[in-house]
Amino acid sequence: MYALIPPLALLAERVLGYPQLLTGRIGHPVMWFGWLISYMEQRTNTPVRSARQRKLAGIVSLALLLIVVLVVAVVVQRLVRSLPLGWLLEVLLATPFLAQKELGRAVEAVGDALGTSLAAGREAVSHIVGRDPQTLDEAGVSRAAIETLAESTSDGVVAPWFWLVLLGLPGIVLYKAINTPDSMIGHLNDRYRDYGWAAARLDDLVNLIPARLSAVLVTIACFFIPDASPSRAWGAAMRDARGHKSPNSGWPEAAFAGALGISLGGPRHYDGEMVDLPMMGKGDRNLGRYHIARAVSLYHMVLTVLLVVSTLLALAIALGG
């Protein structure tokens, strides 16, 4: 039954999500990682230290986090596997580390907010992106939402699933313990450039295969979505992904852009500074609510394709074993 944990975790999280009651009472596992990262960063990433010392402090802090998380995950897995129907409990323990339901809801909320006003759209998108929302027009808000959806399809869904399949519960937990520091401290600003170096590089490494797999899944999903083009999706990924500043983010972004016949990327503002990023896709840039809705539809089809692939893989492993 352990082979069925990945597809069952995908299905359970897509339907149920993470209960808001639990978030309010005990937080979310990713929040726990964040608290530990913040605690260590505030005490070790001090301005009086040299760049080399801050880089070393970041490496040590990341290693401590991963060791703690790995030990806890292995112990918990062994405990639940000693229980009757422990595999079912393991399914439930894996679900918080997938982000299917909340990601789709958050991006849909941006489209709904744009239907009210541009100001509401800017407010909604500010919860899921790091760029300055007040500089965005309707097309900019829409691009930001779709880019986040594409990138998070990879690092919020496909990558944790991949590591769950490969290494079980410790794999998916460890992946999120790597991905969370990258989102918090893996930035190229004065505060984090050195301290977050290890977190950013390790996150790049663990996402190399999932990012490219995400582009494949988007391409397959296009066969089941009217007006989505598999050839454009794969062609854009092969052509544009390597031009992205990230070794991984360009793959799902370019695939989404090509699939939908739109263009993502380009200039945007971060902390008051203009950053000019390469274009992903060669289509329309005058985007709006309609394009967000199409992107969300494509996203849900990607989730369905992933669930089918995961189920077939689990059955092959079970029958082969």
UniProtKB/TrEMBL annotation:
Belongs to the CobD/CbiB family. PANTHER family: COBALAMIN BIOSYNTHESIS PROTEIN CBIB (PTHR34308). It is found in: Cell membrane. NCBIfam families: cobal_cbiB. Converts cobyric acid to cobinamide by the addition of aminopropanol on the F carboxylic group. The chain crosses the membrane at residues 20-38, 59-80, 161-178, 298-319. Its main location: membrane. Keywords: Cell membrane, Cobalamin biosynthesis, Membrane, Transmembrane, Transmembrane helix. It is a multi-pass membrane protein. Pfam families: CobD_Cbib. It comes from Devosia yakushimensis. Pathway: Cofactor biosynthesis; adenosylcobalamin biosynthesis. The gene is cobD. This is Cobalamin biosynthesis protein CobD.
